[in-house]
Amino acid sequence: MAYLTLKNINKIYPNGFHAVHDFNLDMEKGEFIVFVGPSGCGKSTTLRMIAGLEDISNGEFLIAGKRANEQGPRERGVAMVFQSYALYPQMTVYDNIAFGLELQGADEDYIDEKVRNTARILGLTDYLDRLPRALSGGQRQRVAIGRALIRKVGIFLMDEPLSNLDAKQRVTMRSEITQIHRETGATTIYVTHDQTEAMTMADRIVVMKDGYIQQVGTPRELYFDPVNVFVAGFIGEPPMNFVRQTVKGGKISIGSTVIDLKHKLGDKLGEWEGKEIVFGFRPEAVHLGKEDNAYVLPASVELTEMLGDNTNVYITMDEVHAILKIDPHDTPDVDSDITFSVPYENVYLFDGATEKVIK
Ligand code: ATP
């Protein structure tokens, strides 16, 4: 049985705004689930309904098979870390972490053991006597996580906990949170708009847009098998390249190149005649030069960005713009003409009307 179940969950705010539509998800005990999507897609609203901080307008929330809609946060056994964590500035790290247990009137030895254990997991043992102002941003965020972790809870919720940190600290904290999750085994739901955080941390990702789930899957499933244009464009950096065209005589054209869709559509080619399709390929799924079993495309180079481990090449094929991600040793000159190949198997086709992937 799933540990957490969201069944047809909806949120309609008092002003009538329908922020979450028919959200369905089963989570296993100990899973690390990430909700990802652009600003305003309903991630935080869903998290707050799970936390018990926001009423569920419609639908059912179950914990271990029991309805929990009417339970408060404490009864549900949730701990939460927010983007803006306020530590008590006049209290040491030790006291900040201990505070929740002290409020509960826990025994002093028990608190001491818990604080030291939590600090060990978080690498804060050497900082227990410090005040928050003498810590780095990343260390402060770890104290905030420690404060939430110290109570034994079944559900650990995090809402953009890394957004106040700089890029380097975010990378470090990302792997630390994954490590903490491994050690504690708490069922975790993590909200972010950053697809890299989602891809690197999640067991499964829930991609949301405009209050609707778009796809639920492992990072691998979302990357290799996106169900629609939105997911294909959201997961991956730089994003997938898309060309929208109407099929004529079983073909589309990209710039001056004719693309014969029979390689992709086979028997179904006729069904798409006269319809709009979206041709997609990832920047990293191309090879320079001509290859067999691939669409071969000429292009001109507009701009290159050498990033160290790869180069992003911004190209045009007449009116069509795209980005290629290639080995930095092969970086072409700006304004030069190149030829590149997209293996058939690396091409995604989507229905232009519904934006759903064509299998
Ligand atoms: P962000 O990444 O910006 O935090 P989000 O995906 O977490 O975005 P939510 O905070 O869940 O989005 O908000 C979803 C939608 O609901 C937004 O359009 C927001 O304006 C709206 N919303 C949030 N709170 C309320 C409220 N109290 N009353 C009415 N509408 C609200």
Can you tell me the residue ranges where pLDDT is under 50 for at least 5 consecutive residues? none
Order of helices and strands: EEEHEEHEHHHEHEHEEHHEEEHEEEEEEE
Please give the number of β-strands.
Answer: 20
CATH class of the largest domain: Alpha Beta
Instruction: Tell me the radius of gyration.
Output: 25 Å
What structural category do the secondary elements indicate? alpha+beta
Query: What is the straight-line distance between the termini?
Result: 31 Å
The kinds of small molecule bound in this structure are: adenosine-5'-triphosphate
> Strand order across the biggest sheet?
6-7-8-3-9-10
Report the sheet-strand fraction: 25-35%
- CATH architectural designation of the largest domain: 3-Layer(aba) Sandwich
- The helical percent reads 25-40%
Biggest pleated-sheet summary: 6 strands, mixed
Mean pLDDT: 93
> How many helices in DSSP terms?
10
Q: For this structure, what is the CATH homologous superfamily of the largest domain?
A: P-loop containing nucleotide triphosphate hydrolases
